[in-house]
Structures are given as C-alpha cells and as structure tokens.
Amino acid sequence: SSKNIGKVLEHLKLGLDDETTPDSLTHKDIGVPIGRGSMKTAYILKDHPDLLFLQLDERLEDPSSFRTLKNEIEWINKFREMGIKTPKYFKTISMFGKDNQEHHGILVERIHSSVLVKPGRLSILKGRTTAKTLSDIQNLLQKFDQYPNLGIGDFQVLLGRDGQLYVIDPLNIHAAIV
Fold it and tell me: What is the CA radius of gyration of the chain?
C-alpha cells in the first residue's frame, strides 16, 4: 500500500559509504541516546538517520581504549568477510561536546526498529522470529563450526524487525584474526 511505501523509502540506504559519512561531529549533530553498554553509548545522528555514533565512555578515553575501538572495527569487517551478518562499521570518529571537549567513538549503520538479544538475558519479542531468523542462527552455527577457535565472550546480536540477526559489539573475541 502507499502508506507502507513511504516507510520503506525512508529507511533505504542511499549511497552511504566512507566518502559520504561525516569525518567529525559536534554536539549539535547528536540526537537522543538509544542504548548504553559498559563501554559505549549509542546516539542517533540528527542529519543522518541511518547512522549511529557509538561514543566511548569518557572514563575510558585512553590509548588502550582507542585501540579497542579500532580492533572492534577490524573484527566486524572480518565477520562480514566470513559471511556473518553485522551492521556496517564505517570508521572511528571524534565528536566535540558543548564544552569543546573531544569524545571518541565509531560511526555505524543503524538497524532500524531492532532489539538487542543476548543469550540468557532478554526474551525475544513475539512475532519477531521468522524463517530468516532461523536461517541466520544456522549460518552462525556453521561459522562457529568452520572456525572452531573463534569465541565471543559477550555474544550479542540485534534482531531486526524483519527477523534478521546482526552480530554486534565483538569486544571479547577469543581468537587471532583469521
């Protein structure tokens, strides 16, 4: 129906790539936070609704944490090469706050209307699981079988409104980059 076409078009990715994403941000670019973890807070970007800024917690802004952010991007890219579905991680980026203080984070693809799923933590919303969910789970099982030394200590996925699973936040990886 025509009502749904607008919603679909609103969320199409129209040419997002490293060249069209911002190189730096200010507090005026940052929208509302939509999630918080132990190391990062996810913010919507006002002028880029298909992107999120994952801001590193201020107490962790040191050289070791910056390496952790770069390592996270490397792992996400490696997962994508292995055929594991993830949001696209574009780059590390700086954001300047109201006080002109520099904050660091990662610019990532936003998976609209998704929910965080962690084994043993949250129940999955009724109606969210589809044949695609089961296919994605089977793919993950095959990848862990194919790469037996790969382990993720804090396994987390986003469950999209269409049932697709996206691996996120691969901080505690127990393997060398394969």
Answer: 17
